Amino acid sequence: MKREASAERKTKETDIKVHWVIDGEGKYDIETGVPFFDHMMHLFSKHGFFDLTLYAKGDTEVDYHHTVEDIGITMGRSLKEALKGFEGIRRYGSAIIPMDESLCMLAIDVGGRPNLVLNGDLAGKIGVFDTEVIKEFFKGFVNEAKITIHINLLYGESLHHKIEAIFKAFGRALKEAISKGENITGALSTKGIL
How many CA atoms lie within 13 Å of 190's alpha carbon, on the beta-carbon side? Predict the structure, then answer.
C-alpha cells in the first residue's frame, strides 16, 4: 500500500494544494506561480522518487515570500499525515550532493521535533527570485512535519547551483529517512513514540 496524503492551506495571501505520494516514482505536476521554485520542486520530486502534485496561488505581486513559505507549511503537514506516527521508518537520512562547483551536505531526523539549521550564504536574487525565502520554505516544512533538518552548504559560487544542490540532497535524504525498515516495528525510539 502506497503512503500518500493531501493537504490544503488557504489564507488571504495564498491558496495551496498538495497531494504527495511518498512511495512514488518521481513524477510531478507543479504550478506555484514561482518558476524558479517550480524547478526546485521538480528536482526534489525526481531525486526523492516522490509523486508530487502541487498547485499554489499567492500574492506574488508583493513578492514570493508568502507563497514559498506556505508551500513549506502545506508540504510538511502532508508529510506528517502520510507517515502516521513515524512508525516503521528508518528515521535518519543524509546526502552529500555536488552540483558543479557547489557542494551540499544535508541530514534529516524524522523524530517528532522541529528544528532547522542552515549554514551557508543564500542572500541574493536569481532573476526576480529572492533566494533568502528558501530558508522560509524549510522553516515552514520542519515546523509542520515535526522533523529536524541540517543543511550545510560547504562551498559554491553560483546561487542557482547551491540551491539546486540543497533540493537534490533534500529529496535523497528524506527518501532515506522515511524508507521502511524491514526489522523496524513502531517508532524507532527508546521512548516508544515520536
Answer: 0
Render 134-161 in DSSP notation, one character per residue.
HHHHHHHHHHHHT-EEEEEEEE-S-HHH
The fold adopted by the segment(s) 4-178 is Ribosomal Protein S5; domain 2 (3.30.230)
Q: Tell me 176's DSSP state.
A: H
Torsion of Cα atoms, 145 then 14 then 131 then 93, to 10°:
20
| H-only helix segments in 65-151 | 65-83, 133-145
Taking only the tens place, the pLDDT of each residue in 88-116 is 888 999 999 999 999 999 999 999 999 99
Q: How far apart are CA 113 and CA 87, in angstroms?
A: 15
pLDDT at 187 (0 to 100): 60
pLDDT computed for residue 77 by the predictor? 95
pTM over 0.90: yes
Judged by DSSP in three states, 42 sits in: helix
Cα–Cα distance for residue pair 67/98, rounded to 1 Å:
28
Domain range annotation of the chain: 4-178
Closest by CA to 81, choosing from 144, 38, 23, is 144
